[in-house]
Amino acid sequence: MSEYEVQKYAVIGAGNMGSGIAQKIATEGLPVVLVDLDDEKVARGMGIIQSTLQKGVERGIFKPEQVERILGNVSGTSNWDELGEVDLVIEAVFEDLGVKQQVFQRLGEVTKPSCILGTNTSSFYVKDVAAVTPHPERVVGLHYFYHPAMNRLVEVIGHEGTDRAAYDAAWAAQEAIGKTPIDSADAPGFVVNRYFVPWLNEAVRLLEEGAADIATIDWAAKRAFRIGMGPFELMNVTGVPIAMHAANTLGEELHAFYAPAAKLVDQVENVKENWDLSGEPDESKFDVVADRLLGVTFYVAAQLVDEGVSSVEDTDIGARVGLRWSKGPFQLINRVGVAQARAMAETITSKWELPMPKLLADADESGIPIQLVVKGQRGGLTSVWINRPDAMNALNPEVGAQLQAALDAAQSEGRGVVLGGSGKAFIAGADIKFFVDHLRADTFPEIYTFTADGQKMLRGMSGNQQPVVARVQGLALGGGSETALACDWIVASPKASFGFPETGIGIYPGLGGTQRLPRRVGLPLAKYLVYTGQILGAKQAAEIGLVDAVVPFSELDAACEEFAGKGVAPARTGRERCPSENWQAIWDYFASYSVDQILGGEADTGGNPVLDKAVKRMSQKSLNALKQAERLFNEGHHLELNDALDLELRDLQEVFAHPDALEGLSALIEGRRPEFQAPARA
Ligand SMILES: NC(=O)c1ccc[n+]([C@@H]2O[C@H](COP(=O)([O-])OP(=O)(O)OC[C@H]3O[C@@H](n4cnc5c(N)ncnc54)[C@H](O)[C@@H]3O)[C@@H](O)[C@H]2O)c1
């Protein structure tokens, strides 16, 4: 087990960033100490948290009692002696290297030897902050984005001397607080600011050259990048001087191309005001503006991957999660086409006499490969990671194909495999839009092929020589729960949750849910879960044997290795008795009654509120889907697993051909309640 286990957090600096980071940690239910220079500054930071949460209550995001609970997790102090028991410190003091080094020196003295020290610096090297501590091996960069309680992105930065185990623990500690971590080298601007700041700067250069006015540049940028705010509006919101300082740092460290435009410096030093956004856009100038902003983005993104600062995938995730662009730089390159993208980047490289990044120079017209599934290593295991955090790692044919390829390659590596997802969700299910598009286009065979391929992949996962462990850190819904069930072992974090919502959208679980679930938890409880769509937390899932273990985030990786060490799991044949007293009434009810009996009112709940709720939930589902699921349960239960799984494919067309499928799936996308045909009645 790692010597670094993060349970208790501390944040140093109760300013804009620090108070937001502490708020997020507390909101996720974890204890955090917020430290500043004196009690007044601490109180100010606590006040920022309180008023942000209060606004959340007014907007209906939080209930007042939740706010009480969150505030109960934060303790403010100016006494550094209270940091002795803390496992991870996040420093967010002024952006001044001397001040940060002082803080790190002191942290080295007051924290315990296994405490990880993180810095939220935007412009210094992590190694320079680490240099003053007696333990540089446990220093990492943790670069959050404003507003840190809402923006999920965090760049996790190891410097040359960072201990791998400390890095991994810091990463897991970000997952534990609901963040989406990406990896960055210890390099100027890390990942996102490296291209975002030049993007802002280039907007000012366009203005300076008279290529377009502010209103036109903002309008064109919004359209080209499909974003809500253009560069000038963004600078006004986040502070024009911050953009200039960031460009200064990049310019000093990297190249004159990155240095602030003269007009940006003038705006900060002489005009000393926000940009004037007024005016009407001149639509004829769209291409001039869009091509330049895209060119800068393409050049820098490809360059930072060339330099090994980040991967193609993390660079894109950074843009989508951190900046809320609808596509990352490499997706944009593939959208405009490599030749065109290269030509756009060339306007930058030729002007500044910079070499074309190799990634862009060597790419062919098929585009830059973007891995939605990444194979790597985690501890002693081969890791296979679904890497679409902003799409909750939803399954679609492309993800499926890449998952299959990664699993095949992993199996031949001779180690156990850990299957995970990046961000807050493990896998939130299948891509619903894919189903809707094909139902509307009357191309059901695509749905069949996707499901059959998915089944084939999942069948191939268990019973191999190498065990596969599902590392379920967050939400596993529908196809996500089914994927976990197909693994040999399931290890869950306390934040994991499982559910089978399919009957509520007019279909049944088609990736083994109606067959593997009863073999894990017993037929009656499987029926309960599929008929009601009830979502289970990790603890409940453990109670009924849906997962093999629930462990804190800090122990997840070690627990996955431990289960992989047990080898492949023996075939699960289903339990005959209820696994826990808490579930007996549900077990008995669903063991005794059919869907028709339950919905026809023949099945007496005896006034048990849990059963009454189950019946109510069933009455909102598609009756067609419920009955088809029931048929699959009852027929499949007596068969060998492989034969039983075939039944789900056999009936697939029937369930998708029923109008409830299109209605249920479309309603989900449209955010409304479905109106099923021949609705089930309680
Ligand atoms: N603001 C952003 O958008 C943003 C984004 C990412 C990273 N950052 C980085 O986060 C850090 C903090 O930025 P901010 O905007 O929150 O600054 P801020 O000025 O709002 O807050 C800094 C806080 O640190 C406290 N502080 C200063 N010296 C201290 C010391 N020795 N011990 C304890 N507390 C001390 C100050 O009293 C203040 O409350 C900076 O390194 C900045 O570069 C900022």
Structure notes:
The chain is of the alpha/beta class. The protein folds into 3 domains: 176 residues, Rossmann fold; 171 residues, N-(1-d-carboxylethyl)-l-norvaline Dehydrogenase, domain 2, CATH 1.10.1040; 298 residues, 2-enoyl-CoA Hydratase, Chain A, domain 1 (Alpha-Beta Complex). The strands form 3 sheets. It has an 8-stranded mixed sheet with strand order 3-2-1-4-5-6-7-8, with helices on both faces. The chain has a 6-stranded mixed sheet with strand order 9-10-11-13-15-18, sandwiched between helices. It is globular. It starts with 8 loop residues before the first strand and ends in a 12-residue tail after the last helix. The relative contact order is 0.06. The mean pLDDT is 95. The structure holds nicotinamide-adenine-dinucleotide (NAD). Nicotinamide-adenine-dinucleotide binds next to helix 1 and helix 4.
Task: Provide tags for this entry.
N-(1-d-carboxylethyl)-l-norvaline Dehydrogenase, domain 2; 2-enoyl-CoA Hydratase, Chain A, domain 1; 18 strands; about 675 residues; 6-stranded mixed β-sheet; alpha/beta; 31 helices; binds nicotinamide-adenine-dinucleotide; Rossmann fold; 8-stranded mixed β-sheet
Q: Which consecutive residue ranges, at least 5 long each, have pLDDT under 50?
A: none
Beta-strand percent range = 5-15%
Portion in helices: 40-55%
Q: What is the approximate shape?
A: globular
Instruction: Please count the beta strands (DSSP E, at least 2 residues each).
Output: 18
Q: At CATH's second level, what is the architecture of the largest domain?
A: Alpha-Beta Complex
Largest sheet descriptor: 8 strands, mixed
Helix/strand class: alpha/beta
Oligomer: single chain
Strand adjacency order, main sheet: 3-2-1-4-5-6-7-8
Gyration radius, rounded = 27 Å
